[in-house]
Every structure is written in C-alpha cells, then in structure tokens.
Q: What sequence folds into this?
C-alpha cells in the first residue's frame, strides 16, 4: 500500500497516463460500448417486430406480403412521429441529472409519459379512420387494399403502448441505463414471434394474427417500461406546464423533421407498388433487413447523445468534442463492417421470408445495392445523436427537409423509367443519407469548434 509522498507520486503518474490521448480514447471507447451495446436491443425493438412480421407473413403469399408492406410503411411513420418521446426525453433527463436537478428530471420524464398516453390515443384513432385512404395513397391494388387496411386498423390499438415504451426508454437511457431497455426489448420480441406464430399458423388468423401478435407484445413492453421507471432513483413525477411545453416544443421541431424523414420510406413503397407486386414484396424484404441492420448503427447515437448532453450539462465542452470524434470514427468502422455483412447475407436471407423465386431474386439485388449505403448511413445516424446531444432540433429539422432534395430527382427517375427498378430506389436512398451526413456534419463542426 502506498502512503505519503509515494502515494502522491503514484496518483500523479496515473493522471499523466490518463491524460494521454490513446488512453483517453480507449477509456471513452469502453464507455461508448458499455452504453451502445445494450442499446442495440431497445433501438432494434420496433424494426425487429416488423422483420418478424415479414418472415411470418411472407410465407402466406404475395398478396399478404404486399399488404404488410403498405401497412408497415404507414405504421413506421406513425412511430417515428413520436420518437421525440425517447430522444428529447433522453437529452433532458441526462442533462438535468448531470446538473443534479433531480426533481426537474423526474418531471421531464413524467411529461413524456403523459404526452405518450394522449398522443398515442389520438394517432391511433386517426389511423383507424383514414386507413383506407392511406393504403390507397401508397398504391395498394384492390387485392392488397383489404389486407393492408385490416392490418392498419388492428395495429393502431398498439400505438399508445408503443409511445409509452418510447417515453420509458427516454427516461431510462437518460439515466444511462440501457440494460433494462435491452431486456425489455428481447422479451417483447420473443413474445411477439411466439404470439404471431401461434395466431397466424396455429389459430389460422393469417395477416390479422400477425397484427394482433405485435399489439400484445407492445402492451407487455409498455407495462415493463412503466414498472422499471417507477423503480428508478429519479422516478416519474407529475409534470408542470413548463415541462409539457418544453417537450411539445421539442416534439414539434423533431416531428416536422420526422415527417420529412418519413417521405423517403413512404415514397419508396409507393414507387415499388407501382413497379408491381414482385418489386413491392422484394422491397419489403430488403427494407426490413436493411433497416434492422442500419438501425444497429443508431446504437452509437445513444452514447453520443447521452455523453454530449451530460458533458454540456456539467460545463465540459472538451469532453463533448472528444465524444463526437470517437463516435464518428467508431460509426464509420461499424458501417463498413455492416456493408460487408449485408452483401454476404444478401444471397441467402430472402429465402427466409418467401418461397417466391421472383421476389427472392429481386430482393437479393436490392440488398446488394443497399449494402453500399451502410457506411454513409452510419455517419448520418451518429451525427443525429450528436446534434440531439446539443439539443439543436431546428438544425435536424432543416437538414431532413433539405435532404429530400437530394433524394427526389433519382426517385422521380425510377418512377418515370421503371427499368431502373429497385437498384434505382436504393441509389436514391443512398443520396438521401449522404446529404444528411454532410449537412449534419457541417452543423457539428460549427458546434464543436
């Protein structure tokens, strides 16, 4: 045991070692991994629901698979509109907790839960009423229309519970707890697969059984999040007008961004629907597989957001810059790895979702092209987290609107010249991701200078 002067010398040596850039980076990498790896499960929960739906429904035939493609695209936008319940709450709780304002953090989490209940009920009712119009707008043909409308209306019942899960996730992740969301996500998805298999094939409810299985899984996840939130040191508290107004203001800015974000999956589905049932089914498979893999990269946005918010809340701008630099580097490496994985998996994965040879062939081509978008997508997702960390929601909204102009010309060409097919759609998506990365990168460069 060191004592006296020798102990002081040892502490000084440790401080000098920790100050070395390599040591600092290695320590930060471990912190990022400790938060990002468990976050994978929570982030991938909703894409995993959709992937399970696609795998189970795909074997029912072309028409159910096409119906699912129309419905899940609409539901994806409905879930993205409310993602601010997680992202904005994460930033607020992390910053307030770092500043030791625990009562304010508790009220911020309470505001997220309250808005989730009310907002979820309103959106669910809206989707139930306008489901036929939405399906028709996305290009559903008569044979596909009935199935997509039925799936939408059943799934609407799960939206309030999905929104509650977003609120709970924001509360827990803001407290740097990503392990609990991981456990909840894994449990809910295991339940989802079991329920869907039982209802689709056992009870022979077909496409509707898939929808009901997902709703029941969303109910169970929301219940688990609510129970976990009540056990935190910073528990839920009744929000005041200030907390609700702050959340809704952030929600307005992020929801405008989300609506702009939703333009891409909505229009890609609408374009694929006009290319025919084979292209639509193949795009459903490719998009779900790509999205699940790509969203894993979003796990790096979680520590980026939490650590930047915490560093700024504690007045440590240098640490915030270091987090940004390391997160972007790790994101680029992960994106390259996922590009290789996507390309290697492409020839084999479509067979899991359908027996239709034409759909499998088209999905393989789409997945191979989509692999090229993974590295630039990784940068875009990590930069999302960094900009959320500085709470510049206006910049995120502006970026998403401008990025549409990079996507639209190529998408329009595919619509005009059907021979460009699914590869043309994925080139358009790649241009969209690249524009997001460039615009957000410029904003982060200014913020961190």
A:
């Amino acid at each position: 045991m060191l004592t006296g002067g020798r102990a002081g010398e040892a502490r000084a040596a440790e401080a000098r070692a920790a100050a070395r850039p390599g040591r600092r980076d290695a320590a930060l990498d471990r912190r990022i991994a400790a938060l990002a790896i468990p976050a994978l499960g929570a982030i991938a929960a909703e894409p995993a629901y959709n992937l399970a739906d696609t795998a189970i429904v795909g074997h029912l035939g072309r028409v159910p698979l096409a119906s699912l493609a129309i419905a899940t695209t609409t539901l994806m936008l409905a879930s993205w509109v409310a993602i601010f319940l997680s992202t904005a709450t994460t930033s607020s709780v992390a910053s307030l907790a770092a500043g030791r304002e625990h009562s304010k953090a508790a009220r911020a989490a309470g505001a997220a839960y309250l808005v989730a209940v009310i907002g979820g009920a309103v959106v669910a009712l809206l989707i139930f009423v306008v489901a036929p119009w939405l399906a028709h707008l996305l290009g559903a043909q008569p044979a596909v229309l009935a199935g997509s409308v039925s799936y939408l209306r059943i799934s609407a019942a799960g939206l309030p519970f999905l929104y509650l899960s977003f609120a709970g996730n924001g509360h827990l992740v803001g407290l740097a707890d990503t392990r609990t969301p991981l456990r909840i996500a894994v449990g809910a998805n295991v339940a989802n697969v079991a329920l869907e298999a039982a209802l689709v094939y056992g009870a022979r409810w077909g496409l509707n059984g898939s929808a009901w299985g997902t709703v029941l899984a969303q109910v169970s996840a929301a219940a688990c999040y609510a129970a976990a939130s009540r056990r935190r040191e910073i528990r839920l508290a009744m929000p005041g007008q200030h907390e609700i107004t702050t959340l809704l203001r952030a929600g307005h800015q992020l929801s405008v961004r989300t609506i702009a974000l939703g333009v891409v999956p909505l229009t890609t589905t609408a374009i694929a629907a006009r290319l025919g049932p084979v292209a639509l089914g193949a795009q459903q498979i490719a998009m779900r597989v790509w999205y699940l893999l790509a969203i894993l990269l979003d796990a790096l946005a979680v520590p980026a957001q939490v650590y930047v918010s915490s560093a700024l809340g504690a007045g440590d701008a240098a640490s915030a810059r270091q987090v940004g630099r390391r997160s972007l580097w790790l994101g680029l490496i992960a994106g390259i790895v996922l590009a290789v994985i996507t390309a290697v998996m492409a020839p084999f994965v479509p067979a899991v979702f359908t027996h239709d040879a034409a759909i499998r062939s088209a999905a393989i081509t789409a997945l191979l092209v989509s692999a090229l978008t993974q590295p630039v997508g990784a940068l875009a997702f990590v930069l999302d987290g960094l900009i959320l960390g500085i709470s510049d929601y206006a910049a995120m909204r502006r970026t998403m609107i401008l990025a549409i102009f990079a996507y639209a010309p190529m998408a329009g060409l595919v619509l005009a010249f059907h021979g460009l097919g699914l590869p043309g759609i994925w080139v358009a998506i790649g241009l969209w991701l690249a524009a997001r990365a460039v615009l957000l990168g410029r904003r982060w460069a200014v913020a961190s200078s």
Q: What stands out?
A: The longest helix spans residues 102-137. The chain has one domain: 25-447.
